[in-house]
Amino acid sequence: MTQAATLEAETPATPQTPVATIDLAAERESSGVDEVLGRLDAELIGLAPVKARIREMAALLLVDRARKAMGLGGAAPTLHMSFTGNPGAGKTTVARMMAGLLHRLGYVRKGHLVSVTRDDLVGQYIGHTAPKTREVLKKAMGGVLFIDEAYYLYKPDNERDYGQEAIEILLQVMENNRDDLVVIMAGYADRMDRFFSANPGFRSRIAHHVDFPDYSDDELLRIAESMLDGSGYALDGPARSAMSEYIGLRRAQPHFANARSIRNALDRARLRHANRLVADATGPVDAAALSTLTEADLRASRVFAGGLDVDRAGTGEARK
Questions:
Q1: How many Cβ atoms from other residues are within 10 Å of residue 217's Cβ?
Q2: In sequence order, what are the residues at sequence separation of 6 or more whose Cβ sits closer than 8 angstroms to the Cβ of residue 150?
Q3: 309 near 318, Cβ under 8 Å?
Q4: What are 240-274's pLDDT values in tens digits?
Q5: Nearest CA among 238, 251, 244, 252 for reference residue 223
Q6: DSSP states along 282-297
């Protein structure tokens, strides 16, 4: 240890003098909380109850910071969370924004998000799980660890499964390192309830349970238009009507994944659009033709004829 390091270690930190009053409005503005909450409103369509809950948590953390500055006692708030809802409802996106919010308020050092599934944590043989799990936790320290479909960690019917080892390590770190890591566990609501019942250690460590509702048909249409706008595309009038009809039909079919299904449908519509332009090319085309999806690009989907087949990638999403 160098002399400078020794002196630093031996010199006691000067305690901060508690303040008498706090301007919460000024604290909110200087922390950048409004910027994150503004992005939440601007970038995510719908999700009103989720946005309201995030605002409540932001208020709790602002008040907690104010209490600390005034020298008021009390334990720091528990920040581990559970996000429940169907696929494509925005859970990962909100988790990423939550990481930024926690960083702005000083509750995590880096504010990054590490998103994982069971395969990133659980090994295939004895002695493999602990180093895999610890490596993921090391990457996530100072930020947020997002565990999607967390219930797959627990497989009580398989005696040779190593998920329980990962669970025990996670529980220990969630308790001992809660000032340097926030864990968000996500998945279907009913499966998460069973997971917490079988692993009460998680339930006792998670204070915030946020349920993500499915998007309405109107919200999904707005999401589709927003996705296209972000890529420099648009729907013409008849295509917009076809997209609205598509959403209603697709929602009634299996494996519907909210915004994720809409994004996949638009990707396929863009493929049809490009193929149509090239196949029909007889001369110059303008920017509008290159950027506008027509009704034909949408109605070529098998969904309009009631067709559906499972995605080969194994995601459960349908190929149309």
A1: 12
A2: 185, 186, 187, 192, 195
A3: yes
A4: 999 999 999 999 998 899 999 999 999 999 999 99
A5: 244
A6: -S---HHHHHEE-HHH
